[in-house]
């Protein structure tokens, strides 16, 4: 039987952790915390992924592409469901609790806000801080079902650099599919430009596009129009080193 | 793109007095089923912009934005009547609509007599996506539609704080909902009384009003934007923007207590009436 946590669980424990409530914090710190049964509700769709074994490799995203793909393909959620904090809070605490313990270790000095950030999902932006939610959402946001060669070509690119999660997806512009696919396609199609200083150059793209977005509705642009826009400052990109 | 105080190179109808005329979309009609159907009637009263739309240099558009599901899409039309269809499973919670007329291509925007004299005899080279008119915003709610994940639509949750036996209630803005945490003794009393029909409004007055007022004050403070992606923030903001009784109030500390009472439909009067009824009952029994 698979479950999700209740809203009351999220409300109660986010409140107590934010206050650094000694009793709750201690049970997380000594590894003894478990979700009380009265806060669990049956939720069938999670059964498909309960046997997936997530092994800790490193803090970088790059090693997790294959296992995240398995998680995404087996966890058949619609975006409206996948934006629900109760799913990811349950998965980080229970199903993938051991993996999370290594990726986001909790020790005797850990504060409540750190646990809220990585083990709960208190808002839309927090979906990008909860690592299990992040795995699913990176696939959803970058998948190209119509691409006959590799529908995950942009997803592979995103897994090379965690910086994308902070600069491309968390802002308002990156919520438009044409915008985010345009940026990622440009990076993938111009490997030479991004061979070095990739982080700085992607940030420059975002900074320039955000400036243009101040007076232009960029969500009205197609993917190829976004790429043309980036190409208009190609020289500046090639010179960018930090 | 923001219209509050933002400067655009060209005159924009709907932004201060840049352009004479009106662009006033009617409140959209929203039907929620397996698909969300949004019926939009753009209403434009400005000949110079009308002629740019006729030439297909500009078009009406609606930008749909759902923060919770990373959904943002712009729908275009050259007609005043526009119907948008979006699968409901792409949306959850608050959905914001922005109404604009934008350049549909790069073109030279010639001078018009309807422009403010500051722009006299000027013309502008517009790029695709630049605004000619702004028609304001609107929003609506999409509830959870999935069995096993349905939840209350209320953005206020009252919980028990097991770490305290008694004492003042606390308000937390850190989660999705606005959480009011009662100490054990208070929570048990609250729980035993809340179901009784006469007493529900007492809690609105004593607990919910200060909690919502506090939330509005924080929304209007410098740190307010850090909570913008929370469900409670979106619900209060939507209410403040759509309720005609709230439209003269600002999201700030000084208007917060008044706004909270209006949101809860003046709970004080109901509480006082209910106390009066109870006293009358007691007197009758005596």
- The strands making up the biggest β-sheet of chain B line up spatially as 6-5-8-11
Low-confidence stretches of chain B: none
Shape of chain B: elongated
Q: What's the total helix number of chain B? A: 6
The assembly state of the depicted protein chains is heterodimer
Percent helix of chain A: 40-55%
- Would you report the number of β strands of chain A? 2
Order of helices and strands of chain A: EHHEHHHHHHHHHHHH
| Pair with the biggest interface | A-B, 53 and 54 residues
Radius of gyration of chain B: 24 Å
Strand content of chain B: 25-35%
Q: What's the end-to-end separation of chain A, in Å?
A: 50 Å
How would a crystallographer describe the biggest sheet of chain A? 2 strands, antiparallel
Number of helical stretches of at least 4 residues of chain A:
14
Main sheet of chain A: which strands, in order across?
1-2
Question: Using DSSP, what is the number of strands of chain B?
Answer: 14
**Helicity level of chain B, as a percent range?**
25-40%
Overall pLDDT score of chain A = 94
Q: Describe the largest sheet of chain B.
A: 4 strands, antiparallel
Describe this structure as you would to a colleague.
- The complex is a heterodimer of chains A (about 240) and B (about 290).
- With about 240 residues, chain A is mainly α.
- A two-stranded antiparallel ribbon of chain A has the order 1-2.
- In chain A, helix 3 packs across helix 8 and helix 5 packs across helix 6.
- The radius of gyration of chain A is 20 Å and the shape is elongated.
- The mean pLDDT of chain A is about 95.
- With about 290 residues, chain B is an alpha+beta fold.
- Helix content of chain B is about 30%, strand content about 30%.
- Chain B is built from six helices and 14 strands.
- In chain B, the strands form five sheets. Chain B has a four-stranded antiparallel β-sheet. A three-stranded antiparallel β-sheet of chain B has the order 2-3-7, with no helix packed on it.
- In chain B, a hairpin with a 4-residue loop joins strand 5 and strand 6.
